[in-house]
Design brief:
By secondary structure, the chain is mainly α. The chain is built from 13 helices and 2 strands. A two-stranded antiparallel sheet has the order 1-2.
Length: 367
């Protein structure tokens, strides 16, 4: 087992294990949405989950890859508590600065991909007389999308660039996080109380609004950060014991999941905190090239999440208009799909995301 971490091992810029987890979450969602390639209109045609390429190897992603969203919410909670909780509580980050930082990070690519998805959606509707996968593509839903509020009503009426739904919910939790930090509610027992309240609301089905699960996983990540900060102050033997206990819990959860005695959602709630701590402490490469590549993979995640559906929609239009079919059951095709999405995402990150973010922050004077 790798040497436990200390404070000196974790400079603020080197959360490399978390970058790998971000990438894994993105891969999970992309493989879950591989089924979109089989859609004609709002339903898949000739689709069998077990017939997807490399199913034996990629089964968890094909069967439950949507849970990458919940894991990503927890990852966000970890990072936000690490980066913002105390600065916000101490008044070192203003409301305006926090809002501008989030807006400049999320909105430019959201707006671009929304417009692309809307234009491609009109093309697909012209070709087929129906919409592709997501069906609520009217002016009302476009207005919600424009304000990054697509799922605020909580109706799961996915539209245009559908995957943005999870970001729209996370934006609400960002606001809740900031407000609670301003009130000084950042202690572990307060975080645990929020997790418990969300868990009760979910278990009792008090509401179907997705913000409940987002709060649960976001603050689960926050609690994991607080636990990790406490853990790295302990002697190495205690760090070893805690990591071993976490891995045993994951192993037990895996067996329960495979036997049908544990729901996938609960399994992710066990797996994610352990993965956060283990990846953060174990992934500490010394090679500059390895560090550069891990950072590059992490940087592709937001763009890959917002680009993959418009790319699928473009291919759906092209296959119809040009009269060819995609080799959807070929392993080479699913690999090409992943390489294409992440390659494009890397390019978009460099030439669109970062310049737009820097421009907005300069114009809005957040530096």
């Amino acid at each position: 087992m790798k040497r436990p971490a200390t404070h000196a091992d974790h400079p603020a810029h080197a959360l490399l294990g978390l970058e790998l987890m971000r990438f894994a979450c993105a891969v999970s969602v992309l493989l879950w949405h591989y089924q979109h390639f089989f859609y004609q209109g709002n339903a898949p045609v000739g689709f069998e989950t077990t017939a997807q390429p490399l199913y034996a190897w990629l089964k968890p992603f094909y069967e439950a890859g949507w849970l990458g969203v919940q894991a990503f919410w927890a990852l966000s909670g970890f990072i936000f508590f690490w980066k913002y909780a105390q600065p916000v509580a101490q008044g070192r980050v203003s409301t305006r600065r926090f809002a501008v930082l989030r807006f400049s990070r999320l909105y430019p690519l959201h707006l671009l991909t929304l417009l692309i998805a809307a234009a491609l959606g009109l093309w697909y509707r012209h070709l087929h007389g129906s919409d592709y996968v997501y069906q609520y593509n009217d002016w009302g839903h476009f207005a919600l999308q424009l304000f990054m509020a697509s799922d605020w009503p909580g109706r799961s009426e996915w539209s245009f660039n559908g995957p943005i739904w999870s970001i729209s919910i996370e934006v609400l939790v960002y606001a809740l996080f900031f407000a609670l930090c301003k009130l000084g509610l950042t202690r572990w027992w307060q975080v645990l109380g929020l997790i418990g309240a969300a868990a009760v609301a979910y278990a009792l089905k008090l509401t179907a609004h997705p913000i409940v699960l987002c709060v649960f996983f976001f603050y689960l990540g926050a609690l994991t950060h607080l636990a990790h900060e406490a853990l790295i102050k302990r002697p190495p033997l205690q760090q070893y014991a805690a990591q071993a206990a976490g891995l045993l819990a994951v192993a037990a959860g895996t067996m329960l999941l495979m036997s049908g005695k544990l729901r996938a959602m609960f399994y992710v709630a066990v797996l994610t905190p352990v993965a956060l701590i283990v990846l953060l402490d174990w992934v500490q490469p010394r090679s500059a090239a390895a560090i550069r590549w891990i950072n590059r993979l992490g940087n592709t995640t937001y763009a890959s999440y917002l680009l993959h559906f418009p790319l699928q929609l473009l291919l759906a239009c092209l296959t119809t208009s040009l009269g060819f079919t995609l080799p959807l059951h070929e392993p080479a095709w699913v690999l090409a799909y992943l390489v294409c999405v992440f390659g494009l995402a890397s390019l978009v990150y460099r030439i669109i995301e970062m310049p737009a973010q820097a421009w907005l922050r300069q114009r809005l004077r957040t530096h």
